[in-house]
Design goal:
heterotrimer; A mainly alpha (276); B mainly alpha (298); C alpha/beta (264); B: 298 residues; mainly alpha; two-stranded antiparallel ribbon; 12 helices; 74% helix; C: alpha/beta; three-stranded antiparallel sheet; 7 helices
């Protein structure tokens, strides 16, 4: 038998690595990730400085940085951030406050579930952006209409995933509760609710992405404040640096919120009924 | 299986005279059901669902006639149908349909053709995937409407812009699950292949690729949803041609019946794509990974 | 020890009707069973013979088509507690909370339920694991917790539905011995369902042999091996005698079951 020739196929199977290798693997991830990040930035800047493309198309890291310094320093960007933040926060919070209880309730009562399901599915499948003009028509161009729009986007994600969680309750867990004579309320608290949590978290993660889209779409269509508006406004002036700045801010926000929820999801992954 | 509401026939009963008390568990008591009742029970889910849907439209209609719902904004089902009938007879409508369908088709195919090989390649070479991970995640997290002004700067407001937006949504939706698919391939399966000294290429075609197909199918499902969203947001922004424009222009001229028709068209498309995509995905998933493949709603 | 009857079943019949094809499937065909208090009775038979179904009817998870079951009434709480085949511990509760669950269902306040659960956790050999979560436990340990949970409710009758089926051979043997030790300490009435001949003989006072579907009782065999029984009793001549007897009984009725000696 030949000596162990470690042929690197480039595929990770962390399950069989020793501690040293795992340490190295994790560090590799960090190393190459940082490398990739830095490399792109550097190449990008170089390409711009060397005139390989017109700055107005894509700007460059240094210019974007300057724009950031200017607008953050002078404070002109804060009202936009606050505005978008408020729309996002209000809409999202309302979606959670309404979506979770409703989802749980509907999921618990089979008949209600059946009546409402087709409708919910239909609305859930509709690209909500198509409703944006309607919302603006009805609710104007202020904070409320944006918040309502964000709410709609997040709400359906939350309620659908909550209901999915209720449906996912393992039959054997239910049997167990009944076997020991648990009341309906106790069954809800001890079986349904915990099962729903991982599904709910997934729904929240999806909702957070959609809500962000909602903020930008609504602001692009009709607004005079907000990051979406900011991007569009400076877009018409060909101020690509500011446009890119807006993109970066949104991207960073998206990554952070997504990552936060993902961590939570991982923590509760053990609660999923099919993993046992 | 046992009914919910039946006589249980259980209780306490003492045996004759003195002696221990027993709890009695009796059999299920069946109610005799009429044929109608049986038919209902078998199809309950569909019946209730359709009732719900019909009631929704009925309430809408009544509401708009009575004044609970302002027909100025929301129109009414009857008016919408009338507007629909009128609309489909106008040639321009079909131009818009063709326009939107072209965007979607081109964008989707481009996304599929580019994302699958790229995803396989990136997933295969571990270090490459590490290198690109931050940027991929970043672009995936940026809401696409934020990229529209940029794209407009590059290619203007024409159909190309929409194709790009549609493409971007589809591209990332397929790319990320594909990469994850390659990286997730069961170590044991790999071991079997390796222990038979399979060449890398055989490893790839007989193990990696088939195992990745379910992930790609999930990606396609996600992509289809995002494609539709891309169409709407791009067209609403540009206001040149397409079904999204139908909605936008109708809104501007306060023709709520045409606007709602447009919205319902997208609902129809959304439902069809979601259902079709779901079916395709289910057929391609012979085994379900325990990981929750990233669901994005951008 | 109380020698009254803990369970009396008469004419228990379970039939499933398929509405579409209008056929019916008889799972249990008119079964009678008497179990004395403190007895250990096994229901032995091939898969699908209705033994689990019977247990579920007693427990109330299913309703029989006909027949009657009498359980000696408990003063308070339930008369029976079920140990499921699949441990089905709640992944979101610690071992302690899982074991206390039955008590909480019965209305005992959480704090007291936990206090009452602790000694049982020690009894089943999980001392020190009370704060762990199910995913941190091995299969055998999960089944111990499963058992503790059923014991905690302190009901007269313990219903056990192939609790060791998912364990590997060695763990299974260990658990069988453990079960007898615990049963000795807790003094309950046990109705134990299994499809393994050796297991049934080793554990029980009586082995009730059931046929394949439609399930009916083929024989009710008293096991006259002295207690306490060590695992090596399985190699005694009388043991093999019982095993052969049951094996013949099952095969004559066209049942294919794993032969006794290799059924461990």
């Amino acid at each position: 038998m030949a000596a162990t020739a470690t042929r690197s196929t480039g595929l990770g199977d962390p399950g069989r690595l020793g501690p040293v290798q795992r340490f190295r693997r994790a560090n590799e991830r960090l190393l190459y990730g940082t490398l990739g990040f830095v490399l792109v930035i550097v190449l990008w800047e170089l390409a711009a400085d060397l005139g390989l493309y017109r700055r107005s198309l894509l700007s460059s890291p240094s210019f974007i940085w300057n724009a950031a310094a200017r607008d953050f320093g002078s404070g002109t960007i804060w009202p936009h951030l606050a505005s978008s933040g408020a729309e996002y926060g209000l809409g999202f919070a309302a979606a959670l406050a309404l979506g979770i209880p409703l989802g749980l309730l509907i999921g618990m009562f089979r008949r209600v579930d059946h009546v409402v399901s087709l409708l919910l599915f239909g609305i859930y499948s509709t690209p909500k952006a198509a409703i944006a003009p309607l919302i603006i028509l009805v609710a104007g161009i202020g904070l409320e209409s944006k918040a309502i729009f964000v709410f709609l986007l997040a709400f359906f994600s939350v309620i659908v995933s909550t209901m999915a969680g209720v449906h996912a309750v393992a039959e054997r867990h239910r049997d167990l509760a009944r076997s020991f004579g648990a009341s309906r309320w106790l069954e809800f608290r001890s079986v349904v609710l915990p099962t729903t949590v991982p599904f709910l978290l997934t729904g929240i993660r999806i909702a957070s992405g959609r809500a962000l889209v909602g903020v930008v779409v609504a602001e692009e269509l009709a607004a005079n404040q907000g990051i979406g508006y900011y991007i569009e406004f400076y877009g018409t002036f060909l101020d690509t640096s500011r446009v890119m700045l807006g993109v970066v801010i949104l991207g960073l926000f998206g990554i952070t919120s997504g990552e936060l929820v993902r961590r939570l999801e991982k923590r509760f992954e053990v609660w999923r009924p099919e993993i046992h | 299986m046992s009914d919910s509401a039946t006589a249980t026939g259980s209780g306490l009963s003492a045996s004759t005279g003195q002696g221990p008390v027993y709890r009695v568990i009796g059999p299920r008591v069946r109610r005799n059901r009429s044929p109608l009742g049986r038919w209902y029970r078998r199809n309950e889910r569909a019946i209730l669902g359709i009732t719900g849907l019909v009631s929704f439209f009925a309430l809408w209609q009544v509401g708009s006639m009575v004044g609970w719902i302002d027909p100025f904004f929301f129109s009414s089902p009857v008016d919408i149908v009338a507007a629909a009938v009128a609309e489909v007879q106008v040639p321009r409508f079909w131009d818009d349909v063709r326009y939107s369908v072209t965007e979607v088709t081109v964008g989707f195919i481009a996304a599929l053709v580019l994302a699958v090989p790229l995803g396989l390649a990136i997933g295969w070479y571990r270090r490459v995937s590490f290198t690109f991970d931050p940027w991929l995640n970043f672009f995936n997290a940026v809401p696409r409407p934020a990229l529209i002004p940029l794209v407009v700067l590059w290619v203007g407001l024409g159909i190309e812009m929409k194709m790009v937006i549609v493409f971007l949504g589809g591209f990332f939706s397929i790319l990320l699950p594909t990469v994850e698919g390659v990286r997730t391939v069961e170590p044991q399966i790999l071991d079997v292949s390796r222990s038979f000294r399979a060449s890398n290429r055989r490893l790839f075609t007989s193990v990696i690729f088939p195992a990745t197909v379910p992930f790609i199918a999930t990606g396609v499902r996600l992509a289809l949803g995002r494609l539709l969203i891309g169409v709407v947001i791009a067209e609403l922004y540009a206001q040149t041609q397409g079904l999204g424009v139908l909605i936008g222009k109708a809104a501007d001229s306060l023709q709520s019946d045409r606007m709602m028709f447009g919205i319902l068209l997208f609902t129809l498309m959304g439902v069809i794509t979601t259902e079709a995509a779901g079916r395709i995905e289910r057929r391609m998933q012979r085994w379900r990974p325990s990981l929750n493949v990233a669901e994005e709603g951008n | 020890m109380d020698t009254g009857f803990a369970l009396i079943a008469r004419g228990v019949h379970m039939e499933y009707r398929d509405r579409k094809s209008d056929t019916s499937l008889v799972a249990i065909e008119s079964m009678d069973l008497d179990v004395r208090a403190g007895e250990f009775v096994s229901l032995l038979g091939p898969s699908g013979c209705g033994k689990s179904t019977f247990l579920k009817i007693v427990n109330g998870l299913l309703k029989g088509t006909a027949g009657e079951i009498r359980l000696r009434a408990a003063g308070n709480g339930r008369e029976d507690a079920m140990v499921f085949q699949d441990a089905a511990l709640f992944p979101w509760y610690s071992v302690l909370d899982n074991v206390a669950y039955g008590l909480v269902c019965a209305g005992v306040p959480r704090k007291q339920a936990r206090e009452r659960a602790m000694p049982l956790i020690e009894l089943v050999g999980l001392a020190g694991f009370a704060d762990r979560y199910p995913y941190q436990l091995s299969g055998g340990m999960q089944q111990r917790a499963n058992l503790a949970r059923a014991l905690a409710v302190d009901s007269e009758i313990l219903l056990m539905d192939e609790p060791f089926a998912s364990l590997d051979a060695q763990t299974r043997e260990v658990m069988q011995a453990e079960l007898l030790r615990i049963w000795n300490a807790a003094k309950k009435t046990v109705v134990f369902v299994t499809h393994q001949i050796d297991e049934a003989i080793y554990l029980s006072d009586r082995v009730v042999v059931m046929s394949a579907r439609p399930g009916r009782i083929l024989a009710d065999i008293r096991i006259d091996l002295p207690r306490p029984r060590a695992l090596d009793v399985k190699r005694r001549a009388e043991f093999t005698g019982y095993a052969d007897q049951i094996w013949k009984l099952l095969t004559t009725h066209g049942v294919s079951v794993a032969a006794p000696t290799d059924a461990t």
